[in-house]
Specification:
The structure holds two protein chains of two kinds. Chain A is α/β, with parallel strands linked by helices. In chain A, about 25% of the residues lie in helices and about 25% in strands. In chain A, strand 8, helix 5 and strand 9 form a beta-alpha-beta unit. By secondary structure, chain B is mostly helical. The chains are: A alpha/beta, B mainly alpha. At the A-B interface, strand 7 of A face helix 6 and helix 7 of B.
Amino acid sequence: MSAAVEVDVAHRLGEFELAVAFTVQSGIAVRFGPSGSGKSMTLALIAGLLRPDSGTIAIGGRVVVDRSRGIDVSTQQRRIGMVFQDGLLLPHRTVLDNVALAVRQLSKRRERRAVARDWLERVGAAELADRRPGSLSGGQRQRVALARGLAGEPALLLLDEPLSALDLGVRRELRALIRDVIAATGVPSLLVTHDAEEAQELGDVVIEYAYGTIAGTHSVEHPPPRPPEAEVEVEAETESETEAAPTPPAHEADA
Amino acid sequence: MIPTALWVSIRAALCATAIVSVTGIALGCLLAKGRFRGRGIVEALCSLPVGLPPTVVGYYLLTQLGGPGPVRDVSIALLGHPLVFTFTGIVIAQTVESFPYCLRATRAAVAGVDPRLEQAARAIGLPEWRVLLQATLPLARRGIVAGVAMAFGRALGDYGATVAIAGGPGTGTMPIVLYNATFDGSADLARNLALIQVAVALSILVGVSRLGNAKEW
């Protein structure tokens, strides 16, 4: 079976240099590290929002970036779902429209809206369907963003600090939701966080970032057994892999 | 007199605004999003009527549309007459005068759209044309609508460029009739036309202002 995502890229932005290589087979792989360590930049490169200076990226076995061969598949063609820190729902459309827009696998409007309603139900946001994003709380917004991210049947779901703007109670609630929904769908996911507890609770594997590189990786055992499809294999091609700690180190997240 | 002048003015301004809305919004998007050589020159040329006295615009329109040359030849071949001193001529004059208002408002509004919202639209798989229609233009709608409204106001109120190529039947717009009435000694007519113009301009400006303050529409 093809890996969910294979990344081996280098990118420079001003003084900052990112050079990472890793493979994720399935489950939730958490990118953990302080702000400015390159986690979100990695996601942007995978999503096609940034073009790496060099290297390759493959999603579900399909090469979407290979700078040496001039391959650079557009964001739209990468079959990804994405959940941003502040949701980034279209403010002029209803919640239902926002999710329905992402249902790219169907062409009929009625069918797309039916799928969108189903997804809103799955994330506990069915009653929000007719509301505008501006009237939602942060937690509600992220539920809808999660539904939108998954509604298009993506080959890979990218979550860029989806909970960091929420207060603790809502954050815990949504962690459980994210874990359960992703496990139920089996969509391989990359999640960025600088919260150690979140990394531990959500990740099947944690890839720790230091300034522009991968400092180590480790698997996480979750007390209730995960569904078989959430099994994870990660090969981080870094020298420090073998020195990775068994649990995520206490990390001081940047404000 | 007033109903005819009002009707000519509104009809011409609506025609000019319709043309300006399509071309100004399209070019405004291109200037905001496109990265091509000569972008600054194109924008400056299209905005030129804002920086020129309307009589200069009128002079060029009169000489180009009415003087010897390819534009006059083509219009005679197609319509049987040149475009000067016709209703079409004043629509062209008002289009040229009002175009920069729509163009510049659209360019600024589109450039001001949060690019992350457009990226989010791409990330859910919307092709570029749908990103434009579903995200960019709706998000920029307030600025664009304000630009279209300002263009309509400009077209309706134009005198300097319009008067250069008006004169035939059906070309007496309110500003032209007002000017003539002022110097013909028709004081009541002039006053009423001036009041109507003030009321229309005020309505447009209040409407644009309300649009900017409206929370959701």
